[in-house]
Structures are given as structure tokens and as C-alpha cells.
Write a structure and sequence with these properties.
Helix content is about 50%, strand content about 10%. By secondary structure, the chain is an alpha/beta fold. It has two domains: about 220 residues, Rossmann fold, CATH 3.40.50.300; about 60 residues, Orthogonal Bundle (Histone, subunit A).
């Protein structure tokens, strides 16, 4: 193994679509570089979600030290802004004893938060806007204005408070990121004390779709429906307004059959994988490599360290 240049710290990002094989790659790299893994998955952080979010198995977790896996409660509000702050604090600690740390996951919003912060106004979960529009219909604009005053008084004092679209926009960003909307107006360049090396894990479309379908079948065999029943009381939570759980909730509410729900999970997961690829392809500095080609991944990383 070629060691990194002294004093330089590297964050190896392993990104890509769901079911592509990112976890196994990250574990192999953690062994090679004798380091630890930080999860960049917005749902695997919750203790109550396991089968439905394809959390690493106990065997996988024992092979390498993982962070941000099952470390939050489902009823705890946790934003991308909070994720950024907590991960950067963890990295400061890990870089005291490691020259290389691995960030692995498919939540591009979380990865970008760690790498770049929020120089630009980010996209946030569409469910937040739906909930705010529902509040507007049921409680009126005054309730939203009061909420904005608490979260971002600067914006509250400077925008037209009768413009419902602007109030909702400021609120959804403040809620979704955990950072006041007004902060994004500064456009201040974020600095990082590490050098990112970005690896995208890729598979042929047919193979990826096959692995997605097989994973869904295995999840159902492993008790995904039973898990969905245990978290049904929290179904309004953003983490459960996503692929897998919402389809099973529809079955539990008698809106569809179990077979139809499972087929929808497969379809929606394939569509989600396509959106993930679109997101990561917007960033041209990813090097895309098959998950089985560990030697090529290591070679690419070491070349970028030179």
C-alpha cells in the first residue's frame, strides 16, 4: 500500500445507486487503508429501520467500524445541516489517528453537505412542502409566519409575509436543512481540511435492476412486512415517506394487495436508483468503477493521492 502524503487527509467517497454493492466496496477499502466508515444514508441512521433500508448486516458491521448507522431515534428530527455538522466534527476526531476515512452511501444531498456545505440553496424533501401547504390550508398563513419567525428571524423581517410561496420556500429550506434560509444568501465559500476522492459504483442497467428485484424479495423473506408494522405509528415521519415502507403501509391500510405492493417497491426502487445516478452524474469528478473491481478502485484512489 502506498501511504498518503504526510499531513494530507483524504475522504474517500463511495457513492452510487441503491443495491449496486457500495457497502462491500467500503468494507474492503476500510481493511486496505485500516480506517473507518461513515454512512451517508439518510434512513440507515434510524434505529427502528433495518430490513427496509438495507442496513449493513451484523457480519458486515463487525468487519469494519461504521458511524451513523442506527444512532438516531425515528421520532428525532435530524436534518442535512445537522448531519453535516456532526460528520465534520467526527472527521476532525478521526483524522487525528487516520489519514484516510471513507464516506459511503447513496444520499447525494448528505454527501454534498459534507463535501461542500450549502453554498447554494439546496433541494429539500418534497414531503416538507406538502406538509407546509397542508398547514397553510388548516391553520392559515399566520401560523407559518410565526414558525418562520422562530426558525429564521432575518428572513421573517425582510420578505413579504403575505406572499405564501415565499414564506413556504423559506420554511421548507430552513426545516429541510436545519439551517436558516437567510444563511444561503451569503454564498460564503466553505473550506474543508481534507481532500475528497470520489468513486462511483456502477453496474449495467439490467444487472442493477436484477439486484434490486432480488434484494426486495430477500427483504420480504427476512421480515420487512413485520418491520413495517412496528413503525406504522411513525408513518408521517419523512424517513417513512419513501420507497418500501409507504407501499407496505398502503397494503396494511387495505388499499392494495401484498403482491402488488411488493411489485411497486421493485418499480419505485428502480426509479429511485435512476434518480440517484442522475444526481451523481451531474458531478463530473466521480470515477465510475464496477463494485467487483476492487484493484481498479484502489489504484484510482492511490493515483489521486499522489
Amino acid at each position: 500500500m502506498k501511504l498518503p502524503t504526510p499531513s494530507k487527509k483524504y475522504l474517500i467517497v463511495i457513492a452510487g445507486p441503491t443495491a449496486a454493492g457500495k457497502t462491500k466496496v467500503a468494507i474492503e477499502l476500510s481493511k486496505y487503508f485500516h480506517t473507518e466508515i461513515i454512512s451517508a444514508d439518510s434512513r440507515q441512521i434510524f434505529k427502528e429501520l433495518n430490513i427496509g433500508v438495507a442496513r449493513p448486516s451484523e457480519e458486515e458491521l463487525q468487519q469494519a467500524t461504521h458511524h451513523f448507522i442506527a444512532n438516531k431515534n425515528i421520532n428525532t428530527y435530524f436534518s442535512a445541516g445537522e448531519y453535516e455538522r456532526e460528520v465534520l466534527a467526527l472527521l476532525d476526531n478521526l483524522f487525528n489517528s487516520h489519514d484516510v476515512v471513507i464516506l459511503c452511501g447513496g444520499t447525494g444531498f448528505y454527501i454534498n453537505a459534507v463535501l461542500n456545505g450549502f453554498d447554494e440553496i439546496p433541494e429539500v424533501d418534497a414531503q416538507i412542502r406538502k406538509e407546509l401547504n397542508h398547514q397553510l390550508e388548516t391553520a392559515g398563513i399566520a401560523a407559518l409566519q410565526e414558525q418562520l419567525k422562530k426558525l429564521d428571524e432575518t428572513t421573517y423581517r425582510t420578505i413579504d409575509l403575505q406572499n405564501t410561496q415565499r414564506v413556504i420556500r423559506a420554511l421548507e429550506v430552513s426545516i429541510g436543512t436545519g439551517i436558516p434560509f437567510s444563511t444561503f444568501k451569503n454564498k460564503k465559500k466553505n473550506t474543508r481540511n481534507f481532500i475528497p476522492i470520489k468513486i462511483g459504483i456502477t453496474l449495467p442497467k439490467e444487472q442493477l435492476h436484477l439486484q434490486i428485484n432480488q434484494r426486495v424479495e430477500k427483504m420480504m423473506q427476512n421480515g420487512f412486512l413485520e418491520e413495517a408494522k412496528t413503525v406504522y405509528p411513525y408513518r408521517q415521519h419523512n424517513a417513512l415517506q419513501t420507497v418500501g415502507y409507504k407501499e407496505l403501509f398502503s397494503f396494511m391500510e387495505g388499499k392494495t394487495t401484498l403482491h402488488a405492493a411488493v411489485e411497486l417497491i421493485k418499480l419505485h426502487t428502480r426509479q429511485y436508483a435512476k434518480r440517484q445516478l442522475t444526481f451523481f452524474n451531474k458531478h463530473q469528478d466521480y470515477t465510475w468503477i464496477a463494485p467487483t473491481d476492487i484493484s481498479a478502485i484502489v489504484e484510482t484512489i492511490e493515483q489521486q493521492m499522489q
